[in-house]
Amino acid sequence: MDGRRGGGELRNVNPAERFEASRAGLTGLCYRMLGSPSDAEDAVQETMLRAWRAFDGFDGRSSIDTWLYRIATNVCLDQLRSAKRRELPTEAGEAGDIDDELVQRPRTHWLEPVPDASALPLDATPERRAELRQSLRLAFVAALQALPPRQRACLLLKEVIGFSSAEVAATLETTPQSVNSALQRARKTLATQQAPVEGRGPLTETQRELLERYVDAFHRYDVDALVSLVREDGTMCMPPYTLWLRGRPSMAAWLSGPGIGCRGSRLVEVRTCGSVGFGQYRRDKDGWAAWALIVLELGAHEIESLVYFLDVERLFPIFELPLRLER
User: Fold this and answer.
1) Which residues lie below 8 Å from residue 225, measured CB to CB, with a gap of 6+?
2) How are beta strands 303-309 and 230-237 bridged, if at all?
3) What is the SS3 assignment for 231?
4) Which domains are delineated in the chain?
5) Contact at 8 Å (CB) between 120 and 273?
6) Whole-angstrom distance, CA of residue 73 vs CA of residue 92
7) pTM for this entry
């Protein structure tokens, strides 16, 4: 489980230190529920506050981690009552082309990436961290947002956190039968979106070589080499713009046309959404300026999708990336 311990946990602990030890696991749960690292951070802070206020009444019948996950789940459900579903441009309409008008939607409309380091508990085993990393995949988190909030909570608590049906039912104040019914509906929805609960394994040698070729082609800005690494029907999008492209010809036209300003860019690798991403810096007269946070979805031999998140002034600090690289 996500760093959870058995019941009967001793009470002679420092609550602040104990809560802080659970922060990464709670952040991971809240991110999967809400689709935004900043919203997840707010939810975790509210969870800590509620837990601090209620700690004197904690009876020890469950582990502290289980208790914190219950609080966090209900904090997220409270937030989702007034929040709209976050999505990626690929879910917001049909594929476009380079001549389409660039239309923006607010930051709060779009799914956002999360650093792996902030959402994966350090005290989990390597095997458990690998499992949790796969459920941070951008495509999987995007599919989760299509579920009603309570179905989303059921699925995450059961399949990702490792609660029993009885524990999920207690968290949501319902019955195990209702939980199992919600799980069936959630799994059916995810299956239609080709987003199974189980993720993919660690990067293979082929995928690592694919990433090296991607970085090399990007630094040389060899458009033909870049698009050859993408699946024939792969996709590319650029939140906050609604436009998204499908297929190598469309991507090549964009990179050679409207995107030509990216020539001369530099990439800095980050670990995000259970995969590898890059901070992209575009060249200017004084060096390189932050331009995009790129998240790649990798197949066995090709890149399946590229998402360029352009809200760099907010996202780069979350990933501890500078906003400029000097010459």
Assistant:
1) 213, 216, 217
2) parallel
3) strand
4) 1-83 (1.10.1740.10), 205-326 (3.10.450.50)
5) no
6) 27
7) 0.91
CA–CA distance, 296 with 275 (Å, rounded to integer): 7
For residue 179, give both structure tokens.
Answer: 């939980």
**Nearest-angstrom CA–CA distance, 105 and 65:** 37
- Is-contact 65 4, C-beta < 8 A? yes
Report whether 186 contacts 151 (CB < 8 A).
yes
The helix (H) or strand (E) run that includes residue 299 is: none
**Cα distance between residue 146 and residue 194, in whole Å:** 12
Cis peptide before 240 (omega within 30 of 0): yes
Rg (CA), the chain: 21
Per-residue pLDDT of the chain in tens (327 residues, 90 and over written 9): 454 434 444 456 677 788 888 999 999 999 999 999 999 999 999 999 999 988 887 777 778 899 999 999 999 999 999 888 899 999 988 999 999 999 999 999 999 999 999 999 888 888 888 889 889 999 999 999 999 999 999 999 999 999 999 999 999 999 999 999 999 999 999 888 755 444 456 788 999 999 999 999 999 999 999 999 999 999 999 999 999 999 999 999 999 999 999 999 999 999 999 889 999 999 998 899 999 999 999 998 999 999 999 999 999 999 999 999 987
Count other C-beta atoms under 10 Å from residue 148's C-beta: 14
Output the DSSP codes for 89-123.
GGGTS----TTS---B--GGGB----BHHHHS-TT
Which two tokens mark 165? 């049906």
Distance in angstroms (rounded) separating the CA atoms of residues 18 and 139: 32
277/267 Cα distance (integer angstroms): 9
Residue type, 202: P
Give CA–CA dist 101/103, Å, rounded.
6
Residue-wise DSSP of 20-71: HHTHHHHHHHHHHHHS-HHHHHHHHHHHHHHHHHHGGG--SSS-HHHHHHHH
